Here is the input.
Amino acid sequence: MEGAKLEQILRPLINKNTNEGQINTVAISPDGKEIIAGGWEGCDEDMDMGCSIYVFERTTGKLKKRISRLPAQVLHLTYSSSSEGGTNLMKIFTKGFFLLELLLSLLIIAILLAVSIPIYQVYLNRVKVSEAMILMVGVKTDIVTHYSYYGKFPANANQLNIVTVGNYVEELNVDNGVITSKFDQSNEVLANLALSLVPALAKTELPKVIRWTCGYASTPDNFVSQGTNQTDIPPEYLVSICRSPN
Here is the structure.
């Protein structure tokens, strides 16, 4: 450091196999006679002894005494003058991580994991179900076109030029207009479960208006559902329009 002056060379005890000798902080007494140093001193040496700080003579660098039985490593040291005779007062700041704190931290982590992991798993399953939704929405257009041209819904997927598989969807079927996606075995929760997109025709309007219901959603008023809804996926893995009535 530019302009700095070397006050003294201190030689605390050093142990290469432990943290003994790791200095975090030093301070000079107001009267200029002492230098104190602290850090990880003695923390690894003897647990019964606790951590320590060293007090050195400023003029000679000689170790005067060792203050032990501190609860944790020393992070900061300061001196202040007492109003009674100008006595030097030493302030020691330590921070430790004890067994109780460790147990409380582990308990908090366990609670967070217990809450977050199921939520994350639900999110992952919703992502997989969304693939089926994307595939089925694409098929809806082909079915509407088929109905407009032939006046009836396609009996099966062979009557349409569509994609019937995906990364998580094992099979996409069309049964008299009802689109059903079945999931593969890669996920234990969704394995062999199905999600249906069901067409509904208006009761009175001509030409017939087609509305679609997803999963467990109810059929709109003045519309009649066509075919059979095969949805059996747990509702929590579906988007809101598929979980509850419209």
User: Anything to note?
Assistant: Residues 104 and 110 are 10 Å apart (CA to CA). The chain has a mean pLDDT of 79.
